[in-house]
Structures are given as C-alpha cells and as structure tokens.
Amino acid sequence: MHEAPIKDQRSIELARKKMETQQNFIHPRDAIMQTMERIYRYRMTTTSGGNLSIRRPNGDIWITPARVDKGNLTRDDIVCVRSDGTVEGRHPPSSEFPFHKAVYEVRPDIEAVVHAHPVALVAFSICRAVPDTHLFHQTFKVCGKTGFAPYAVPGSQLLGDRIAESFKAGCDSVILENHGVVVGAENLALAFQRFEAFEFAAKTIVKGTRLGEVRYLTEKSLHEAQARSVALESAVPPPASCREMELRRQLATFLRRGCRQRLFISTEGSFSARVDEDTFLITPTQEDRELLRIDDFVLIRGDVREKGKKASLAVFSHQAIYRKHPEIQSIVFAHPVNATAFSVTDSFFDSRTIPESYVFLRDVRRAPYGVQYQNDGAISEYVSPASPAAILENDGVVVTGDSILDAFDRLEVLESTAEAVINAKSIGSVSPMPDSVIDELRSAFQLP
C-alpha cells in the first residue's frame, strides 16, 4: 500500500482540524438548519423527507422536527432530546429519532447522522444494491465503509436495530432497503460530505450504465491519488494587486454557482486563475467548495505557496498546464455527473452534437487514469487552446479557458452536452454533425 508523504498527511489533518474547530462554534440549531437547507436546495430530499441530528458530548441529541417543511426550517424548529429523554422544542422530534439514537449508542465516534431519500440512492435501495465507491478515489475515501440494512417500518425499533447493526459492523454509509440512506460522521459537515459523495457515486453509476459498462478502480489505482506529493515551500506573498483581488472574487462567485448547479460537489474539484506569467490562485485542499471565501484561495508564485495555506492536491497539474500553454488563463478540474459518467466508461464523448458544443469544446480528448497525479507535467499534453477540455478516466473532467468566465462557460456546455447525449441514447441513435458541417463551423468561427 502506498502512503502519502508525511507533509501531505499533515496538511490534510490540519485542514480537517480546522473544519472541526469551526464546527465547535456553530450552534446545533444553526448547523442542522443550514445543512438541511443545502440538502433541500440540492434536491436531495423532499419537503417531508429526511432528518438530521447532532449528538453533544453531554448526551443531548439535537434533531429535525416531525412534520415540518424541510425547505423552510428555522433555527427555532430544531428539537433537543435531552440525555434523560425529555424533549425541548416547539415540535415533536422526527419520527426516525429511534434509529438516530440507536446509531449513537453503538458508535461512540459518530456525532452526527444524516438520513434522506436522494433519488439515485433510493434507486439502489429499491434494487437492494449498494453503490460501489471504488468509482473514484475521493468518493471511496469520503464514504467510508458501506453497508445495507433490511427493510423495517419507518420509525420502528426494528429499523433502528437493523441500522445500528450495520453501523456496529463498522459501516459509515448504509443503504436502507426500499427507503433511502443513513450516514454518520464525527460532525455534521463531514456527514453531509459523506452523504453528498455517496449520492454522487450512485448518480454517476446510474448515468454510466446508460453509456456502457462502468469501470471501477483497483486498490492499487485508488492509492495512486493518495500517493501524490504536493509539498511546496511557503512564503508571505506581496500585497495583492487589483487583478488578484478581482480573480479571488470571481473564483469564489463561480465556485459557489458551480456547486449550486451541481457541477462540483463539496469534496471534489479545483479551480484556478492565472495572475501573471508564473503566478496563479487555486482552491485550497480539504475545504468545502461552496463555502470558500476570497481569502481562502492559495496564491502560487513559481514553486512557492502562500504561507499558512494548503493548495489543492491538483496544484501541480494546474501549474504544468499554465507553464506549457501561456494563453490559458483559467483551469477547472470538476465532476459534473453526466460528463463524469463518460469518465467511468469507455464511451466516446462526441462534441459534434450542436454547433455551440463543438465551437466551445472542439474535439474532447481522453486522458488515462492517473496522468493528473504525476508530477511530470504529462496532463498538459491533453488540453490546449485548440482542445480546451478533456475527460479524465475515473476522475471527472478538466476544462480550460482564456478567463474564469470562459472556463466556467465551457464546463457548463460540457455537462449539458454530456446530459443531452445520455438522454438521446434513450430515444434512438445519436447522429453527430458531419465533417462538412464541422469544417463550416471552423471557418465561420475561425477555430484553431
């Protein structure tokens, strides 16, 4: 088994501790309300479905209420079940409280539980199957051990017993037969990320099977990503220029938009922008993409990172592309579910669908698994101004542009094109535009 270099392990651990420290100062009412709002906004639950809880060190359990609109929760709606069984709040606790309590009783390490009915995981639950998280290295890592709990009546003690049995066996993400999913973690932020990553894997498998046979990673391949070395010297950067300030603002804005459009998930993807010839800004590692602020982005100048910050694990891939292609001003590594479905199958991604797709994307190349983890710059051979996007086997896509807006626009077009092709396969044979039309487009739009 490969192990990440000590410096990189420390970087990840420091980022994790930062998240845990931030969680320590958020009241359970607010943490639950904000997380449920996000789950509902992402359409991963319904008005009446799903419940979240947090266990405090004194044994109190804060939980979503029964029969209250999940899309319109307020902090005063959240219920506290004290360790002595008394209930405080304007509503009764969720009817699923028994299984939350049962999970906490068998897993002292778990302090937050998420239960909901996201469509892809529900599809697996009604097929009595569990998504294989060997699909991506990050999903495999985030979701932890997966399991399955046989059906029992919602809210019943039997359901609690069956779910608790799976968690007692070491599972962290559990499919409930004909019901949905339950995940647990050390805090609610991590539980949300686990829940989101599990649904992302399930969605990608569902989409991928419509294209062909889904390809999974071996244990060796999974550890290639973890074995990356991203050690960089650090230094205090000079005062930010107006250009750097503006790029920070744009990166934060488009990342937030991308998360809300499901082009990114909170644990996956990186976004960067060139400041000058050998300087760029990039997303930090191990931080929720949607919640990034302008000061969270990491400035990379040459081979030196901004002091006190940890750059994305993809930093050397971004650097290699910028150094080989001076015209490129922004780079996105992302995991939009439809485009990512192409990355986990051998299905050819054909951008010759409608004029917009070809003009924006041109011919999209496919990079073999792991090329983006190598520090030899090989990833820079798969994109260029003339070929601005590539499919990364079992790791989403990479898209480049001459501005942050241009890169983001191309990412949207790539995902829309992928979804259209997948949907078209349910209707009939996909008919790409002929060479004569492509030649006409190249001439009309002066494409390289």
UniProtKB/TrEMBL annotation:
GO MF terms listed in the record are: L-fuculose-phosphate aldolase activity; metal ion binding
Q: Pfam families given for it?
A: Aldolase_II
- The EC number(s) given in the record are 4.1.2.17
Cite the entry's keywords alphabetically: Lyase, Metal-binding
Q: What class of enzyme is it?
A: lyase
Example GO BP = pentose catabolic process
Keyword Lipid biosynthesis belongs to the record: no
The cellular component terms of Gene Ontology attached to this UniProt record, alphabetical and capped at eight, are:
cytosol
Where in the numbering of this chain does the Class II aldolase/adducin N-terminal domain appear?
A: 30-206, 249-422
InterPro entries hit by this protein: Aldolase_class_II_sugar_metab (IPR050197), Aldolase_II/adducin_N (IPR001303), Aldolase_II/adducin_N_sf (IPR036409)
KW Lyase (keyword) present: yes
SMART domains, sorted: Aldolase_II (SM01007)
Q: What is this protein called?
A: L-fuculose phosphate aldolase
Species source reads Novipirellula artificiosorum
